[in-house]
Structure formats: C-alpha cells, structure tokens
Backbone:
C-alpha cells in the first residue's frame, strides 16, 4: 500500500421530512466531503432534498443518493423481503429523484450509498450489491457505489469491474470491528465507540497505515476510501470535527471520493 | 395556419400501483405516440414505471412524466393548497424518478404533463405553469411542457420563450369546449363526449382546419399539437383506435410531439 | 368428534384502495358468513372500509378486521422485520379503525384475521399469535382470533385460554396440505387447487368427517371452524358458490363463526 | 354568566412519527387536562399513539383524537378539497384507531378536535363541523367535539343538540382576536402573542369575566370551555406553566372538559 494522502468523509444527511427535523445537517455538512442524501423512501422529502443538495453544494460537499426501503415508519431500518428486482426499481427511482435536484443546482450526483436495512441486506448478500451496481451502471457510469470495507473486498471489486463502475470502500469511524474485518453487531455491547480521541486516532491510523484496532486487541488490515461519520447530535458533530482535525494535522486531505477514485 | 400533416396522440398510462391494475396500457400504448407516465405520487410505483417505460419504448411511443400531487388516496384529483415552491419540488422529484427508468431503457423523457388536480390548478393559475416550466428548464431544456390549448395561448407561449423550453398545446378528444375555448366542466352535463364517430370527425377537423365545434353549436379556432385520449376501458380504447384511424385516413401522421415541435 | 352441523365461510374483502378496485366483493360477500376487511395498511382505505362494512352487514356477513403490514406497495405480502411490539401496535390501530365503521353501522367486529406476510409470520412463530391475541383481549374479549388449523392446535388453544379469547381454526379450501397438516408452500407446484368439484368435496369431507386428503394421497385429521375462500376473479367466485352449495346440500349450515364458537 | 370555577387546558400532542420527534410531550402533558393526540394521518403513528395515551392517562390528562388530512408531508396543514363524506371517513378511521389504544389502557376517548387544515376548513364552513359531529354521534355519543369559540356560537350549539353530543368551545391562549371574535390570521403581524404575562392575564380574564382584549384595544365577549396551549418548544411550555399557575392562583381548577360539560 502506497501512502494515502487523501480520504473522503461521508455522512447521512437530508433525513428530515415535512415538519420533522432530523440531524444537524447545517453543522455536519461543512465538515464532510460527501453527503449521502435521503431520497424520500426511508426519509427525506422533495423540499428537504432540494435544500440539502443546495447546502451541500455551497459547502463543497459532493452529493450522493442514499436510497432506502419504502418504510418511513421504520426509517428504512427494518429488513423487508423485497426481491432483487424490487430493490433495483426502488434504487433507480430514488437516484433519479435526487438527480433532478442536482441538475437544478447545476451539479451531478457523485455516489450512491444504500441506507439502513438495505445496506445491511447487501452486506449479508453480495447479490444485492451486484443488483444495485447494475442500476448505477444503467443510469450513469460515473456514479460511485459505496460499500462496506471488509472481508469480501475482491468480490466487490469484481462487481465494480463487471459493471464498469467505481466502488468506494467505507470505514465506520465509530464502530467496533471483529477480527475478521466485519462490523460488530449493534446488538453487542461496545459496538459503538464514544471515545473521541480514540476514534480520531484510529481513523488516522487506518488512513495512514491501513491498520485498524479490532476487538480483542487484534489488529486488522483494512483499506477504505471514505469514512462514515454522523451528525445526529452535538457530540457526534464534535467527533466529526475531531476526526477531520486529526486527519488534516496528519497531512491528509479531506476531499470527495470522486476526485481520487 | 399552414396545413398540418402531423399530430401527436398522448394518453395517461402507468397508473397502476402495486397489486392494483388501472387502465388498459397494453392496448392503448401501441395506438399513441406519447405516453404520460405516472411517477408514484398520485399513481404508479417504481416497478410500474420501469415496465411502462419499457413497453412504451418498445412500441415507439415517446415517454413523458405525468407528475401529480402526493395524494394516492385521492388519485391526485383533489386540489391541495400547495405553494409554488412545493409544486416545483414535487414536479422535479417525479421527473427525476422517471428519468432514471428512461436512462435504464436507453432513452430520454420527451415531455412533462401535470396530472389531475395539479393540471387543473395550472389551468386556473398561469403562475403554476410558469413554476413548472422553470423546473423543466432547470432539469433539461429539451423537455416539452404539455399545456391546455385554449384562451391564454400567447401567455403560455411567452412562458415557453422565457424558460427556453417548448410548449405543446393539448386538445381533449372527448371533452366539450365552451365558446371561449375553455373546457366544459365535468360537473356539467355533456362535458364528456361518447359518440365515437363525432369525436373522430371533430379531431380530424381540429387538426386539418384548426376549428372545433363547441357548445351551442359555435365554432372556435383551436390549435393543438397533441390530442389527449384515454385507455380506461375497452370503449375508450376503441375510441382511440377510431381517432387514430380517422387521422391516418385523412393523411395525418401520428408521431411524437418532439419530432415536430 | 361429534357431527358438525355448522361451518363459517370467510373471505378477504375490502381490499380496494382509492380509485383502485380489487376483488369481486359484491359477488363474494353474499356467499360468505364472515368478511375479513382490509384496514388501510396493506389495502383498503376509509371509504372502502365504510362501504364494505355496510355491504357485508346488509348481506348478513359478520365483519372482522384483516390487519396487515404497513406496505401498500407490496400488498402486505412481504416479510418485514417488525418487532412484536410494533406488530401489536399495527394490529391495534387497524382493529380500532375498523371498529369505528362497525359502530357507525350499528354493528360490532366479530373477528380478526391477520393478512399476508403478517399471517405467515404468525404461522412460523407462535409468539406472533400470542402477541396478537393479547391485543384482541385488551381491546375486546369478544373478538375471535382466526388462526391456521394445523399441527400446533393445542398451543394455539392454550393461547386463547390464556388471553380468554376464542380461537377459530381456519382451513384453506383451495390449498394443498402436507401430510403433517401444514400448507404446501405456494412456491411448490400444485400448491393451489383449481378443480372445483374436488375442492367442494374435500371441504364437505373436512367438515363432516374432520378428514382432509393431503399430498401423496395421505389423509390427515384436520378440524376447522371456518373455511377461507377467495373472490379475486369470476372463477374464484364460482368455486365459492360451489363450496357453499355442496355444504348446504350436505345439511351443513353456513353461519358466522361467532354464532357457534 | 355565572362565575366559572373550572376550565380545561388542551394541547396537540402525540405528533411524533417513527424516528421523528416533535413537541415536548413529556413536559406539556403533565400541565394540561386534555390531550389531543395525532392519529397517523397528519402525524403520529401506532407506537406514538400507544405511548401518548399511556403517558397522558398516567398524568391525569383526558385523551382525545386529533384527526387530520392524510398529508404527512404537509403536516395536515394544507387545505385539501376533500368531500364531506371523505372527511367523515377520515375522521371515523382516526377516532377508531385511537379508541383501540385507549381501550388497551383501560380508558376511553373524551373528545375529538380536528387538526390544522381540517380545523380551518370547519371554521370557514359550518357544514364540516356538522359532518364531523355526525361521525362522533355515530361512534360514541359521549365524545365531545372541540370547536373554535367565536361568532357562530349558536349555530355550533344547535349542531351539538341535533346530534346529541356535547360541544366544547375553545379559546387560543396565544392568538390575537379580531373585534368580531374571530382569530387574526397567522399571515398578519401580531397574530401570535409572545408576552407570557399578558397571555396569562388575558386567559384568566377570559375565564373569570368572559372578556378578551382583541385587536384595536377592543374588548369582546368570549366564552370558552377549554384553552388551547402549545408544547412545541421550551418557551411554549413555560407559557403553559404560567397560564396554569395564573389560573390556579385565581381559584380556577384545571380539569378535563368532560368533567363539567
């Protein structure tokens, strides 16, 4: 691995709906380089999408679609037994809807990252990644698919090659990893990290050395192009700020994934 | 008026939803030249959109978006007191969603025609046409906006010029017109015509002479680029067949509006 | 088993939505004794519910709630990873909504039968039956819970006793059964029976002898209080008519389950 | 007017949805005597309804339905051109749904107060009040209908008598009134009052003297049974606390409307 000088920071934003506000988008968007924007199925609505695309673009964050299951009541977190074809249709619909708002702002979508239950389904079943990759390729080959960095790296790269699209591997800044490189389930204690300093140091090491401290003090090799951070509350935003600061102080640029992939 | 040799036939299709089937799309799409496809707000869902775009494209009908109010329960027919900005957001979202399915089929959207309550709101308030035109211009200047042919022709043409988009004027094959060129309200008796032969003859005369027989036996001048027909039931489809036949027999080509506007 | 002289016929009705019509309710409701009415989550809307309660009541069919998952796009057929508490909330909401329309018609709900994916989840996991039974008991102890007749009869009866509610066991007129008394999955060939005469004879024998011919020509003992029939299309309605006729000719009364349970 | 010793305080609560939180229900519910609970159309979902009914009941607030238009995206604030029959169906559905959660808590609904756009439609068109009153009477004659106190008091009382239901007249604690007793439109400056002390004094005077200071320093006679207060933010809750304190200090009891109407 050659020394990495650039990394992307992504965050799920644009998840408000109607009168309902969710997340501190105004605070977190200026700190990230790629914005995953809700598209109206699990969260987000047309007005929220317009405003979020505009705000992200003003602050230099690249915009991407964050498609989810059609389950607003469950925030798209619940597994739904949708077929691959249904998933493709849902993803296409949501990408297209967001593309319109990007066009209205004079910009284009950079990436697509599935949300919640759909993301988890893909992590468990690589056919879902393949189905989604096919949609991106059919709509716009410049769209980057964001996937979970981990054990099945080569399979995912092959999917990208087959569909002639770029794949971005994602690292979760505040999640524990198992020794095999998979995420510790949220149901287990310690799945989410809260120590800001440890999180920041771990991110820098992952970027500069490709090494992550996992459970049971093991060290795993993990290469990622983009780091997922959150803006749910002031503490989360503070963590993003620290991660960003630590990266910059280590001489790492924080730039949209599309600029280096 | 120079002699018109070409006309477009448009119909609202793709209005099924989930398990629910609406309209005889398989019968009517092969007879028309432009398909107005529901986009998931008043009707239609991602799977229906995909299938309808594919079917229309296979049969040589140009595809367009048919955006409506977010009111599935009311089929988008009810007036909703949405602001111009909300309308723009809804229209952008729906156009974009359908564009994705067009892209997946290797085609592009030709036109946009608002549905039901939104169409009626625009007919009553030209600011709504202007707001929608602005969305089309912002997304893709090749998109044609379909509006009601009638009294405010010059205003609508000016809107098209201001936004640098094409405007298509629409004539309703089976609706009565008032002497001022406006549509007879559906609440009045005789608003909808059922005499297939009269309808076909009236359409041909409108196309060839620019004249329509209106209420009280008056004759009005009315120029239209596209004729709206329906596929709700076998009688409606039969009417479309007759209108198409009468046009062809009169030497008029039935072609997508985008080919001659 | 003493000789049974009465049986209930139930059918899923009230599954239209807005402009969308589903099922031949006007034909099938006069033939059945218990109507399972959609409650707006997987199908049905407030107007459909009002009309269906009124029509069923006029024709002497007892009314019951047919609650489903909040998935109109998937008609409630898809498994959703909802918690037991979410399921209880969804079922309570839908029962209550239908109770209002029953009250407006001067009647009360007789029973509750979960729909589609929710029913299947309960069949696979008895905790779901238990959770739903708890909701019925909390709302109105006169409500009967309709469950699938089959292998776990005693467990289901115990659930009824624990919650002090009545349980109705249901037999599917047109579905194949496995030798263990479970339903043959719809994914397997021959899962659905189409031979009207065989279906009618099998129903009569199940009612009079408690015996059902299952796969591989085995005979199984199966006791049921209510028989599920369908009104999806003219053939289905014709099958209901034949089943009803065969029952009456065998001296079996077709009456609402609440009259004999 | 005899001296009033009791008044009701009502507030719109239970308007969260899924992951989205709205309003400081935990703070405001303990301060009020009647809770208007969202029923899933404009806001609220089954889980929120269950929790809100439980919380209100624990804190001694009577529970009521707060039905709205089916417009989650617009929070039920937008006018929708629904027919009187559609409105009746929507209201019945929502009342019933909430009744189920009341039954599960061992309690019953006290009242019904329409929300937002539906409330405004009723204020402008007394036929809407009449239609809703008919629904209450058909479901449960003990349900109280909450209406706006103002110019058409006698008409509304006649509606109550005709349907044999109780009518509660409502005063808005923080809204300006016109000299004719109607509310100052929110579009006008000064429509909403922010001076906590003035609001509290005005409420006490309304209760004790039946007099309200309206615009242009006029004084109007206005009798109300219940006072609407808000819990949208800490300032609003603080205002409720002051209004309640001022009432108690004036020897007025704050009790559910059902106890004295």
Residues:
């Amino acid at each position: 691995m050659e020394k990495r000088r650039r990394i992307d920071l992504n965050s799920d934003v644009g998840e408000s709906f109607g009168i309902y506000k969710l997340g501190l988008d105004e605070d977190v968007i200026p700190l990230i380089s790629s914005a995953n924007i809700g598209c109206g199925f699990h969260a987000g609505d047309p007005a929220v999408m317009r405003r979020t695309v505009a705000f992200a673009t003003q602050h230099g964050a690249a915009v991407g679609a964050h498609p989810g299951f059609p389950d607003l009541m469950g925030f798209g977190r619940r597994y739904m037994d949708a077929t691959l074809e249904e998933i493709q249709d849902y993803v296409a619909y949501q990408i297209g809807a967001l593309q319109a708002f990007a066009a209205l702002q004079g910009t284009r979508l950079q990436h697509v990252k599935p949300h919640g239950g759909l993301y988890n389904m893909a992590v468990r079943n690589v056919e879902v990644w393949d189905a989604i990759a096919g949609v991106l390729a059919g709509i716009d080959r410049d769209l980057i698919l964001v996937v979970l960095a981990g054990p099945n790296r080569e399979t995912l790269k092959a999917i990208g090659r087959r569909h002639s699209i770029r794949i971005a591997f994602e690292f979760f800044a505040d999640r524990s990893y198992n020794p095999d490189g998979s995420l510790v389930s949220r149901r287990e204690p310690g799945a989410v990290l809260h120590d800001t300093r440890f999180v920041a140091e771990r991110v820098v090491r992952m970027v500069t050395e490709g090494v992550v401290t996992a459970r049971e003090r093991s060290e795993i090799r993990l290469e990622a192009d983009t780091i997922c951070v959150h803006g749910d509350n002031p503490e989360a935003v503070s963590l993003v700020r620290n991660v960003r600061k630590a990266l910059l102080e280590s001489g790492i640029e924080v730039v949209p994934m599309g600029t280096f992939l």
User: Anything to note?
Assistant: Strands of chain A lie at 6-13, 34-38, 62-66, 111-112, 144-148, 167-172, 211-213, 219-221, 226-229, 253-254. Chain A touches chain D at residues 17-22, 43, 45, 72-75 (CB under 8 Å).
